[in-house]
Amino acid sequence: MLTAIIPKLPMRDKNATKAFYIDQLGFTEIGDYGDYLLLKKDNIEIHFFEFKSLNPEDNYGQVYIRTHAIASLYQSLLDKKVSIHPNAPLQNKPWGQKEFALLDPDNNLLTFGESL
């Protein structure tokens, strides 16, 4: 039986990844194994693997994160001056989701969605 899915995303600089996810998005570190980092917030985990030669312009890493109270999450990120993707502010989508998205320091796209 399947119980969870944990995305694995590339990172060039572990300190930059930690600063973004922990300081700006509110994740906590649950494991640091040199070139492999584990972060968690609420009921989700994201793992990161070191990829020093990654060109962010060539990175297509993407994660869709379901959430509740998306409007308050969105506002809390704006209050912290987290950059929202210019093409993805909070909006209702035709597929029945309210969504917004942002990019991490390595150009991994994080889309947050709540059912309408």
UniProtKB/TrEMBL annotation:
One of its GO terms (biological process) is response to antibiotic. Gene3D superfamilies: 2,3-Dihydroxybiphenyl 1,2-Dioxygenase, domain 1 (3.10.180.10). Residues 1-115 form the VOC domain. Keywords: Antibiotic resistance. CDD domains: BLMA_like. The keyword Magnesium does not apply. The keyword Ubl conjugation does not apply. It holds the Pfam family Glyoxalase. Belongs to the bleomycin resistance protein family. This is Bleomycin resistance protein. It comes from Flavobacterium glycines.
